[in-house]
Every structure is written in C-alpha cells, then in structure tokens.
Design brief:
- This protein is an alpha/beta fold and 1024 residues long.
- Among the domains are: 338 residues, no CATH class; 237 residues, no CATH class; 140 residues, no CATH class.
- The protein is 30% helix and 12% strand.
- Helix 11 packs parallel to helix 15, helix 14 packs across helix 25 and helix 20 packs antiparallel against helix 21.
- It is globular and about 85 Å long.
Length: 1024
C-alpha cells in the first residue's frame, strides 16, 4: 500500500473544466485521469443495477483469509449473487447490507481454491484498475510531526499529474489578508486589498504588489490547535476535517487550565540539613531553574530580589526599549533585506554575552553551564535564556488560549480591571510597585524572547547550514535544547515574532507617568504582614535576616515611556469592516464613519499614535454587576467565555478608539487561534454605542445574542451551528447571523436585545483515545481498497436514492428557550438557557401537518465533506433492455454498446451503511450502542463490522437540512455534511469512518461542476 502515500497537495482556486464524450471508446488515456466533480445526481434503477452488476459478480463459496488486515466482511457466493441486483432504498441497508457486509471471512479455505474461483467468476483488479477507479478519491491519513503531534492530511495519490486536483478543498479561503493572523500553518497568500465574499473575489481597490518576507531560518515547529485554516468549512456552520480531528487535543485541552499553585514544602517532613541547604540557596541566582514554580503576581510584589531567582535583573526601561528596538530592526532586515544576515553579523558572541549578562540577566552559575564548553558561548546564552523564560508561572503563559486573548489588556488597560487575571497594585506598598509594572514585565518577557529567537536563528544558519567551525552544533546540543524548551517557551517565540511585526518601538523620555502613583497612600502596606504566616518565602527571608527590598530606582519608571505604534492599522480596519459586512451588522455605516474619522487614512496621525500610548480606564456601570473573577478568564466551559467590553468613554480624549480589545485588533496584536473571532466581534460591539447600551458591557463570546430583531451566534454554540443551514444566514470567521429570534417557552415572547448562554452536554463519541491519537487507524478505517480481496465482486457503487416526486414538506417554526426547571428567561441578566427546543412541522399532501420538536442537548459538530472528483472514465457494457430501463448486465451478446461515466467512486463491501429517510428521524431517538460502546463490548474486528454509517437524506431544501442537524444535536451525533455534486456517497462514507462520525447528511448540491474530456474505458471491465 505504499502508493497510498503520494505527494501531499496544497489547494488553489483553479476552475473546473468542461465535460467531453469519448470519440473512440476503445482509446485509453496514457495517464491516470479524473474528471472535476461530475454532478452526483440520482440515477434510476437501470443505472444502479448496471454498476452493481459490474462490480458484483457470482462468486464461489471460498474466500481467501487476509492475514495482514482485519476482517470486515464475508459471505457465501450464493447470498452475494442474490444481492447483486439489490438497490439502495430509504430505510434499508444500502448496497453494503448484503450478508457479505455482516459476516466475517470464511476461514480455512486454501489459497489455490480462491485463485481458481477468482479466475473463473471474478476479475482481480490490477494496479492500473485501482488507479483508474480511485482517481480523484481522497485518501485520509495522519502525518506525525514534532513532539508527538499528528497532523491530518488528505492526499490524492493517483492524481500527481493533475494540477487541478489542488482545487479540491473542504474549507473556504480566508476572506481578507488581516485574517491570516489566525494561523501558523502555511497557506496561500491573500493579495492586498482583496476580499472574498461568498466564495467570489471582490476588488476593494487596485492591487498592490508587495514582496513577500523571507522565512526565518529557525522553525519553531508548533501550530495553533485546532487548525484555524479549517475552521471555515464550505458548508455554513461547519468545519473542515483537520479542525474537527484536532478539537480533542486543542490547546485549551493540552495546556493547563490555570497556573498551578506552588506546593509548599512541609518543613516538618524533611531533614534539618536539607532545610538549611534550602535556606542557604534561597536567594541564589536561578534558584527556581530546577522546575520549581512561582506565582507571577506575587513575584512582582516581591520585587527585584524575587526576580533574581529566575535570573532577571532590575532592568533600566530605556535600555530595555532601545534593545528591543534594535532587535526588531535586525529581524526586519533578516526577513526583508537583500542578503541573509544574522545577529552575529552585527555583534560578536562575546558582545552578545556581555550585553545580555550585564544589562538584563545575571550570569548563570557554573553548574548550570557544566555541559557548555565555554561560558560565553552562544549555546550557554541560549540555555540561560530558555531556563529563565521556562520558569514556571513567573511569566504570562501564552500557551494558554485565554492569555492570547487578554494580552492586549496588559499593554493598554489601567487598573482596576473589570475582568482578567492581572495584579491590583493597591495590594502592595513596596517601593518598586508601580501601576505599569505588569506592562513592564511583559516588555521584559518580549525582550528575552527576542534575544532567544535571534540567537536560535543564528545558531541554525551559521552552526548547521553553513557548518561553521567557530559555532559547532552537535546532536547532543539539539537534544539538550529540546529538553529545556516547553510549550510556554515556544509560544513566547510565536508572540514575540508577532510583537516585532506589529509595532514600531521607541523610547519617549519626556512622557510623564500615567497615572501617578504613591504606594504610601494605599493601605495595602499591611498585606504582607497579615499574610506573613501564610507565606513561606516571608518565613525564609525573616529567618535569614536578609533584605528583600533591593533598589527600586529602575522599577518605578512608567512603562508608558515605551511607545508602541502599530504598523498595519489601515489593513486591520478594512478587515474589521469586511467582517461587519459579512455578518450583516446593522450599524456598520455608523461604525465605519466613526472609526474612519478617528483613524483617518494614509499616514498615521499623531493623535492615533498618542491614543496607543496612553492607558485606557474601564469602569463597569452599577447595573452590570461586580467585576468578573479571574476564574471566568480561565474557565473551560464550552458555553461561556465572558469578557468585559470597554464602556467608559474619555470625553477629553481627541480620539475615541474603544478599549484594549479595539486596540488589539486594529494594531494586529492578534495571535493564532480562535481569539481572532472573539476580538472581531468584541471590537464591533464596543464601538457601536447603541448595541452596547442594549446588550450591556458583558459579552459571552461562546454564546449568542439577539439585537434589533436578528441574532448572532458564536460558532462555538450549537444553536448557531444548527441555524446556519437556514436560508438568509450569514457567516464569517466564527460568527453566524440568523433571522431567527428565540422565544421564551413560558411567555412565547421574543427574547430580543439579550445575550444567551446555552448549556450543552458533550457529544457521543467512540470510546478510547481520540481518533487523532490512534496513528494509522484513520487510513486503516477509510482506505478505498477496503479490507479484503481486490476483486470486482468486492466493490459496489453506492448512489443517492431518487428524489421523491412529492416529498414531505418540512417547515421550521420556532426556537424556544427556558431556564432551569423551566423558568422564564424574560428580563433576566445574562440568561442561562437550560432547555433549547427547535420545532418543525411536517406535511405531506392532504395530511394535516404534525409537529416535531428536538431538544438541542449535545454540543455536536458538523464537518464539511472533503471534495472528491469522480473517475474520468467510461464503463462499456451492453444493454439487455431495449427501452433503457430495468436490469442491465454486461454481456457478450450483440446488443448495442453503451458508455456511461461513473458518477462516483466504488465502495468496498466492508463499509456498512444504512439509508434513513428524513421523516423517520423522530422515531430514531436512541443512540446506537454499537457505536458508543465500541471496543468495550466487542473486539476490534467486530467493532469494525458493527460501525454502521447512517445516511440521512436531507435533500430538498434548507429547512430539511436544519431538521436533520437538529436531530443530530438532540441525539448527540456529529455529522458529516455530504453535499451532492461535491462528494460522492462512497467518499462520504469513508471519511465518516476515518474521523469516527456516525452520520452523513446528504444535502442539496450548491455547485454545478463539469468534468473535463476523457476517453478512457476501464480495462478488463468492458466485457466480463
């Protein structure tokens, strides 16, 4: 199966070509070919039986037992023959429902007997046949990356020759250049001044050609999880395969929920000698480098003596800013300059050592550098920087998604803070305490990360690529660094790259302190004394009679003397306006006028630059309630992500620019991950006074809200994902607009101008590890060749059943919310929806409509099926029925020869599936035990056979699809959206098996694709 793993493909926007009819039916192409997505429309029984007869032949009783794969099917030849003309009908098992799909291979038969049977009654598929039949079929697999990460891949191994195969996606392209901030994955560039609306490109102004930056030599090797490129599936409210598979191992799951508290040593449980040794080294440099933990806010309060324990000096602010500016300019030269440079081209190794360890860090002790050949070497500097940044909980941890959202609060908001997890300066009266100390601490973190980043880049370029004798890098050096680095350090490098790309940095000595602060005036001076008994550090300091005050001269300078001026303001503003337009924001014109008048166009005004270098104050109104606790910032609730919007307008300010959220987006200080969706919507809200007045300053970015007769839903909310399939919905980058306003279950009145938190349960899933952690199982569960013999009789061609002439009409009626124990939600601040009901009516002919309601209990996801391309070949067969209807079988008679293009890919009989009609869904209200119990009650092989994919026919209108989605949310099944004309039924079934999804929703095709000419006929299947 080595040929499965061909070259991986990126994707492009190449259009499909036209179809063609073969002029010579006997002519074969000289290369493999597939047609660009022939419409997979319903065929009659005539066509279905033709293909079933083609692939399913009478077989003998013997079967060859494959020793290298699991057994997924088996049957007697007699049963298979009886099923050869069966059709796939609603409510019954499809072409895989024959006994062959339910019984294991017969055992004990010899290989010779099987060979005879195959040669007499079946055609054994050759490699050429396989390449022809499965051309254009996606193969699903996992690629193993660094640090045991696995990356889902989709390849087309039989179409390497065809560049148009790169047009097959399961996601929409990013609509605007500013949205590329959401990802670290490689992607096609979005041209400047270019917008993609509803899959159609729109020019904003004339194109501007710009040279792209060169890639840095050092590859950090991490990506946001889940993959944000695949967040926008081609179907509304859906995600791509990569995003879905990575959800169970997302950054929010992988990294700790909140900083762990230091587990203080119980003095009574350790020997006295160890206590004295601990006290002796308590104030040593890098005392916390051995994996000990600290508390960031406590460390800031403890001052320079505590900073020394992680090796950090009390750094002069001007020196810090000037060095950060130098490193920023050097990195820009490295990326945009004409020649390749490194930091070693401007500073020698000794100069780097001297500057680092005399101005910013304390020199590490010799034991810490015992494995470094020279104390001043670049390797020793890298180790010291890594150890300092890796000090647990001493810094802001950007591996946590919540800190990627709140980073702007550290830079621009002054205390007291209405939300977040920041230090309250009033709780500390030490001389080094200053209101801007946390901003300064973040700047120090950025400086150290920049020093590390440029040294790593120089090490890779000079020491490895150029093989320098002066800088020799061994495998042991690489291994040592890998042991030191952590997810926190990796994300420091990601953040500092974004920081240096975003801001022009300078020092303004004449900038007065903002605001002034005198710690003596605050009553917090007694806090340290009150907590004396609870703080072991105070115990050690008093026991040793050492002063911990240090010098406060450097610490008390205002961090606002560091000027940060954004460089992409105009592009970010355009991205915000595109987002507002795509989600149909009603106040967009006023929003545009206000922001454009404040920011202007062209060169940045001095007023805007000053607005970015003054703190913003945010005081919540009394009716908004108490400030949010830090637990709200670190919550892992799937339905709640509260954030405080800026609602305190400074009337004296010359530029009204919202709060830290608006500044974060407009500056481009946005990090990879879901945070881009939160910042976009929050920026819209806090710059729309009417929306802010009606909805309040507390936003739930995992919920939804009703405003002026419309609703907007986060894509994290299952209600939005279900409503997205209705007509007249809009979607952009994680937010969905719907015309449906929920009603209160008690009063039946619309719940307008309100936020909603919708309680949900985890969806049903297979037991065991997430599929992305199961290695080759994705490829194993979905290989197009199946798990058995590669003979024509083992494959069938599943097709969608014909559309009903008079289908039952499904009408969406209401969405109702109720609180705990059925309570009303009217006039409730921050309502929590405990019960969500979607009600539909189903009518057929003269029958009176019946009501059907589904409760949206589960947080299910909808996944866009990956596009496939039907094989570009024609089947030659003889029609035994002169009228062209009825059963048709290949024959050697002299009846007229016909050619028919395959509407999809064949499916191996080992893949079980079952058709379910839409109107029968209310009766299917009990989950499939075989799916949710899996390997707990059956062995691996039996579970493969028992995993039956449900095919729900949701064609016939938007409301039918919404009906099916609501059923999935009520039962707990994730669903694959298999759009007719984009993905054939066989590929949908295989993809559902690959990702461990129970349901495939077949919905109406929205794209009319025409195949390009091909005149190939299937070799060997012409006259069998």
């Amino acid at each position: 199966m080595a040929f499965f793993f061909g070259r991986r493909h990126s994707v492009s926007g190449a259009p499909a070509e036209d179809d063609g009819v073969p002029r010579n039916p006997n002519l074969r192409l000289r290369r493999r070919a597939s047609v660009p997505n022939a419409p997979s429309q319903s065929r009659g029984t005539h066509d279905r039986n033709v293909f079933q007869d083609l692939f399913r032949r009478h077989r003998d009783d013997s079967e060859l037992e494959m020793s290298t794969v699991e057994r997924g099917h088996g049957s007697t030849r007699e049963n298979q023959s009886k099923k050869s003309t069966a059709t796939a009908t609603e409510g019954h098992t499809g072409s895989q429902s024959s006994p062959q799909a339910h019984e294991p291979f017969a055992k004990g038969h010899n290989q010779e007997g099987n060979r005879d049977a195959t040669s007499s009654s079946e055609y054994a598929l050759s490699k050429k046949d396989i390449e022809t039949l499965f051309s254009g079929a996606p193969f699903f697999l996992l690629e193993r990356g660094k640090y045991d990460h696995h990356y889902p891949q989709v390849i087309f191994p039989f179409d390497d020759h065809d560049p148009t195969i790169q047009n097959l996606w399961d996601r929409k392209p990013l609509p605007h250049p500013s949205y590329t901030l959401c990802t670290l994955h490689a992607h096609l560039p979005v041209p400047d001044r270019w917008v993609i609306s509803r899959d159609e490109p729109i020019h904003l102004n004339s194109w501007k050609k710009t040279g792209g930056a060169k890639r840095a030599t050092f590859d950090i090797g991490i990506f946001e999880v889940p993959n944000m490129l695949a967040m926008n599936g081609k179907d509304p409210g859906a995600v791509g395969l990569r995003h879905f598979l990575e959800l169970p191992v997302a950054d929010a799951v992988r990294y700790p929920e909140e900083p762990k508290k230091l587990n203080y040593i119980q003095l009574s449980s350790i020997p006295a000698s160890e206590i004295y040794e601990l006290m002796e080294h308590y104030h040593d440099v890098y005392a916390l480098s051995g994996g000990a933990a600290y508390d960031r806010k406590q460390m800031l309060c403890d001052g320079p003596s505590a900073w020394k324990k992680i090796g950090v000096r009390d750094i002069n602010l001007q020196c810090l800013v000037e060095r950060l500016r130098t490193l920023t300019n050097l990195r820009r030269e490295l990326l945009h300059g004409k020649k390749a440079t490194t930091i070693l081209d401007t500073e020698s190794t000794r100069d780097l050592y001297s500057g680092l360890f005399t101005k910013f860090l304390y020199p590490p002790s010799k034991p810490l550098l015992a494995d470094s050949s020279l104390a001043h070497s670049l390797k020793s500097q890298i180790k010291a920087l890594t150890m300092t940044l890796a000090a647990r909980h001493a810094w802001v941890d950007f591996s946590l998604p919540e800190w990627r959202l709140y980073a702007g609060q550290l830079l621009w908001e002054a205390g007291p803070h209405p939300d977040g997890d920041l230090l309250d300066p009033s709780t500390c009266s030490k001389p080094w305490m200053h209101p801007t100390l946390e901003r300064r601490w973040l700047l120090i973190q950025m400086l150290l990360a920049a020093e590390l980043l440029l040294r790593l880049d120089a090490t890779v370029r000079v020491g490895i690529l150029e093989n320098s004798k002066e800088l020799q890098i061994t495998a042991q050096d690489v291994d040592d660094f890998e042991k030191l680095r952590s997810g926190k350090v990796d994300w420091d490098l990601v953040v500092v790259r974004r920081f240096m790309d975003t801001f022009d940095i300078s020092y303004r000595a004449d900038e007065p302190d903002h605001p002034g602060f005198d710690p003596v005036e605050h009553t917090g001076h007694s806090r340290g004394e009150k907590n004396h008994e609870k703080n072991p550090r105070s115990f050690f300091e008093n026991l040793l009679h050492r002063s911990s005050s240090g010098s406060a001269a450097e610490s008390t300078e205002s961090a606002w003397n560091c000027s940060l001026v954004p460089t992409y303001l105009d592009q970010q503003l355009q991205g915000l306006l595109v987002f507002g337009q795509e989600i149909g924001w009603p106040g967009l014109d006023g929003l545009r006028a206000g922001l454009e008048s404040a920011i202007g166009s062209g060169q940045m005004s001095e007023a805007v630059a000053n607005a970015y270098n003054k703190p913003v104050h945010n005081m919540l109104p009394v009716e908004a309630g108490a400030p949010l606790s830090k637990e709200e910032m670190h919550t892992r609730s799937p339905s709640r992500r509260w954030i405080a919007l800026h609602c305190s307008q400074d009337q004296k300010a010359s530029v009204q620019l919202g709060g830290w959220i608006t500044r974060s987006w407009l500056s481009g200080f946005v990090f990879p991950g879901e945070q881009i969706s939160h910042l976009l919507m929050a920026t819209i809200l806090e710059n729309d006074p009417d929306a802010l007045a009606k909805l309040g300053p507390i936003a739930n970015l995992y919920g939804g809200f009703a405003y002026n007769g419309m609703t907007w839903w986060s894509k994290e909310c299952v209600v939005g994902r279900v409503l997205a399939s209705l007509e007249d919905t809009k979607e952009c980058l994680g937010w969905i607009r719907s015309a449906v306003v929920p009603k209160d279950a008690w009063t039946v009145q619309p719940l307008d101008n309100s936020w909603f938190e919708v309680s949900v349960q985890p969806p049903l899933s297979m037991p065991g590890k997430p599929r992305i952690l199961q290695g080759n199982k994705i490829a194993y569960e979905s290989t197009p060749l199946g798990r058995g013999e590669r003979v024509s009789g083992a494959f069938s061609l599943p097709l969608d059943s014909p559309l009903e002439k008079e289908p039952k009409k499904v009408v969406f009626e209401t969405l109702t919310f109720s609180g705990k124990d059925g309570q009303s939600l009217e006039n409730t601040p921050h309502p929590i929806v405990d019960r969500t009901l979607m009600t539909f009516s189903i009518a057929s002919g003269t029958d009176s409509p019946r009501k059907v309601s589904f409760q949206l209990r589960y947080n299910v996801r909808f996944i866009t099926s990956h596009e496939c391309r039907p094989p570009g070949n024609f089947i030659s067969y003889h029609c035994a029925c002169p009228t062209g209807s009825g059963t048709s079988t290949p024959s050697s008679s002299s009846s007229p020869r016909h050619h028919h293009r395959l509407p999809g890919h064949p499916l191996h009989s080992g893949y079980k599936y079952k058709h379910i009609s839409l109107d029968s869904l209310p009766e299917h209200c009990i989950p499939d035990n075989a799916f949710i119990e899996g390997s707990h009650h059956s062995n691996h092989g039996n579970h493969h056979r028992n995993h039956e994919v449900l095919i729900v026919d949701a064609r016939g209108g938007h409301e039918r699809e919404t009906f099916a989605r609501a059923w999935c949310a009520s039962l707990g099944y994730h669903a694959l959206i298999g759009r007719v004309g984009r993905t054939c039924l066989a590929c949908c079934i295989r993809e559902a098996r690959a990702i461990g999804v129970k349901v495939v929703l077949r919905v109406d095709g929205g794209v009319n694709r025409s195949p390009y000419p091909s005149s190939q006929t299937l070799p060997g299947l012409k006259e069998i």
